[in-house]
Design brief:
141 residues; alpha+beta
Length: 141
C-alpha cells in the first residue's frame, strides 16, 4: 500500500496477497495507522481535514467504517487505487439491497430515497447497475 516508499509498497503488497489483509503505515511511523481485511473493503470516503493539505480517509465495508486515518492530500486516491486493483477487494462483501416500496410514495420521500441511493453509490456501496435498478423501482413505485 502506498506510503511514499516504492520498496515498502511492494513488500506490503506481497504480504497482502498471502494474508488477505493490508495495513497502512504513515511515512516515518513505527506503528500501523490501520489494518483491514481486503475482502471486507467495499468503498472509501474522503473529507477535508482541519489542517491544510490533509484529508481524512475512511475505509468502508458493508455500510460501516472499517478504518479512518488522516493522510496527506493525494494519498487517498493512491490507497483507493491500490485496494480496487487488488484481487481480493470486496470479495467478502454482502450486497446492499434497498427494500421496495409497498405503495406509491409521496414525491418528497422518493427524492429522499434517491438521495440516499446516490450517497450509497458515491460511497462505493452500490454499483452503477444496482443504483439504476433501485432508482427505477422507486420511480415506477
Amino acid at each position: 500500500m502506498p506510503d511514499g516508499s516504492a520498496s515498502r509498497s511492494c513488500q506490503i503488497g506481497r504480504e497482502a496477497l498471502a494474508w488477505g489483509s493490508a495495513a497502512y503505515l504513515k511515512t516515518g511511523a513505527l506503528t500501523q495507522a490501520f489494518r483491514v481485511q481486503i475482502g471486507d473493503v467495499t468503498g472509501f470516503s474522503v473529507t477535508k481535514s482541519r489542517k491544510l493539505l490533509e484529508r481524512q480517509l475512511n475505509v468502508l465495508g458493508n455500510g460501516t467504517q472499517l478504518a479512518s486515518v488522516s493522510v496527506n492530500h493525494g494519498t487517498p486516491e493512491l490507497i483507493e487505487r491500490w485496494f480496487r486493483s487488488h484481487p481480493l477487494f470486496g470479495t467478502r462483501a454482502t450486497p446492499v439491497t434497498v427494500a421496495a416500496p409497498t405503495a406509491s410514495l409521496p414525491a418528497s420521500l422518493i427524492a429522499d430515497e434517491l438521495r440516499k441511493l446516490g450517497d450509497l453509490k458515491a460511497e462505493g456501496l452500490l454499483t452503477d447497475e444496482e443504483f439504476l435498478a433501485q432508482k427505477q423501482r422507486l420511480l415506477d413505485g
